[in-house]
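Ticket #4471: structure output looks truncated?

Reporter: J.K.
Steps to reproduce: submitted the chain below (507 residues) through the standard prediction queue, then opened the result file.
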Amino acid sequence: MTTLVYLKYAIALLMEEYGLQTEQEITFKEIKEELEKGLNTFSVKPIGDYCGQTKVQYGFTKEKNDAKKYIFLAPNTITSEMKASNLYNAVCETCSEENINLLRAHDITQSEVPISGEFNRFTDKGTFQRGKSKATVFDQCLALITSTTALKPCLQYKFGARKISMDNTCLIPDLEISDLQNFIRLFKRIRIQKLDNSLMVGKVKSDKGKTLKYIPQRPNIFNGNFPNAPHSSALGSIALLGAIGEMTKEKDVSELAMKVLESLIDCNFYAIKYGDASVFSFSHFIIRLAERGKLRRIVDSLYYVELYKEGRRSKSNAFEYQKFDLFASRFMQIFNRPTFKDFLAFRAEYPYDIELLLNTYFCDMEKIDKEIVTSAKELGKWLNYVAYRSAQKEVGTSSSLDDLIKAKAKVLVELESSVFSAKSGDALIAYTITRAGRLSGFDAPTEASLFMEKAVSGELPLEQAKNLIIAFSRLKSKKEEADKASSNDNQSIENENEEMTEDYSNI
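Returned output as attached by the reporter:
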C-alpha cells in the first residue's frame, strides 16, 4: 500500500468510483476510464458568443490550454500553463494504450507528479549525475489521475504585489483509504448538490483600442470548485472546511459530513501545486465550528475586514490585504496564542460575525470564563460605538463613507494606544474609560462591570485583559452595519470589490 498522499488519493478515488474493495482490484480498465474523465476537464473555454456581453458562460473541454484563444487550464489540472503540454501528452499517450504493464519501472517526471524532481545520484564509476525518481507505471497512472481529476478540492492560488503568481493548487488530506473514500464521496455530493452554474461564469471586459475588443475573463471556479469559495485564495483551505461543515445541515449526508470532519482532526492537509507543496492542519476548535455549521459565515466575514491604514479593499492595497488573509488563515488553522497575536497585530475593524470566532478563542483556547468574555464584549461594543459616534460628529452627515471610516479608525487607534500603554489592570481601565468618556460624554455600560472588576483586581491577567478589549472594540456594531447597508454608498463597496477580481489571463 502506497503512503504518498498524492498517489493514495487516486487509489481511494478509483475504489470509490468503481466499487472496489482493495487496491489490488484496480486494473488498467478503471485507470484508463478515470484518465479519460480527467482529460475531458483539462481546460475551460467560453461557450457561445460573448461579444457585446458583460458575462460569458464557460464549459470544460479536453482541448489543450491556449490562453491567447481564451482556453484556460482548468483549476483541477495541477501543472503550470507552460508545462501543461507535458501532462496532456502523458495522459493522451496512456489513454491510447489498449493494455499496459502496470508493474514496469518508470522514471517519474514533475509533469506527472508535481512535487517530484531530479536529484543527484552516484554511478558505479564514482561520479554523479542527475537522476529522476523511480517508480512503476501504476504509480505514474495514479499520479496522472490525481493531477487531472475534477473530483478534488482545488483553486487557483494568487499571490504577489506587482507580478501576480497564479498557481493551480489542490487541497488533499492525508487520511487512510477508507476515510479518503468518505472525503471523496462527500466532495462529489457537494459538487452535485451545491455547485451552481455561476461558478462557470466569467466577466467580459471591453478593450477600446484601435478596434473594440471583448476579452473573456476566467470563470468563478478559479476561486475554488466548492461552494462559497472565497475571493481571497489565502482563505481557500478554511473556506473548504466551512463548505464541508455546511453539509452537516443536510439530513441525507449529515452523518457522512460529521464522519469526514472527525477524520480531519489532527490530520495533515497538503496544498499541492506544480513544483511545491505545503502542509497544514486544522485545530479541533475550528473543526467544531464547522460541525456546528458556523464556519462559513466567519470566513465570508473575513473578506470584509477593514485595515485601519488601508481603508476598504481595492487593487491599490491588495497586497496588504493578502498578507492579512494569510495570517488570518494561519490563525484559524493553528488557533493558538502566537497565531492570535499575529492576527491581532493587523490593526483592523471586523464585521460583527467575527464575534463568534473571538468568543471561541477566548473561551475555549484561553479558558477565560464565559461571563467575563461576555462582559468584555459589552465594553468593546461600547468603545466601538463611541468611535463611530465621534467620527460622525467629526466628519458630519454629508461626508462620504470612506471619510467616516478614516475618522473612526483614527479614534480606534487612539483608544488602542491607551490600552497598549497601560502597565496594570487598574491603569488599563482608567485610561480607556476616561478617554472614551471624554469623547462620548457617556459612562461605560453596567454590563462591563464584571470585566473591569476582574481586570482591576488582577484576577484577569493584564495581557488577556488587553487582548479582550482590543479584539472586541474592533467589532462593528449591528446598528452601524445596518446604517451602512441602507446608505447609498454601500453600492460603491460592492463595485469596488468587483473591480478587485482582476484577471491576469494573458500576462
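Triage note (M.O.): checked the attachment and the full C-alpha cell line is present. The first strand starts at residue 43 and ends at 47.
Status: closed, working as intended.
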